[in-house]
Write a structure and sequence with these properties.
By secondary structure, the chain is an all-alpha fold. It has one domain. It has 4 helices and no strands.
Length: 120
């Protein structure tokens, strides 16, 4: 169970789970901010299904990942990398906003931290 196939599968499951979850959150936030938007609209239920699919990917990724890597920190860093890579991209694509000074400094510190964890 320690093959390269399972390691790649774990990374993909976690990245896909994080991406689906972030996408649903951002689309929900954008559409709920529109004037006259209802909370329990049909969009809410579609995004809920997407969040459930994301949760399944993440759960399987974490369970299989710990079995394959025997180290929870590798799984945690993979999940954080997924968030750190995917969320800023989706934020810009959906909202067309660049980060402010504080947000940019936080993003850079997060990237430096992830690189430090992977290198050292």
């Amino acid at each position: 169970m320690n093959s390269i196939f399972f390691k790649i599968l774990v990374v993909w499951l976690i990245f896909i789970g994080e991406a689906l979850s972030i996408y649903a959150e951002i689309i929900g936030a954008k559409n709920f901010s529109v004037a006259g938007a209802r909370f329990f609209s049909p969009l809410f239920w579609r995004l809920l299904i997407l969040i459930i699919a994301a949760g399944v990917c993440l759960l399987v990724g974490y369970m299989l990942g710990f079995k394959v890597f025997q180290n929870i920190w590798i799984i945690t860093v993979t999940s954080l990398m997924g968030i750190l890579i995917v969320e800023p991209m989706f934020d810009y694509i959906v909202f067309r906003q660049l980060p402010g000074h504080g947000s940019l400094i936080g993003l850079i510190c997060g990237l430096v931290g992830i690189v430090a964890v992977l290198v050292f």
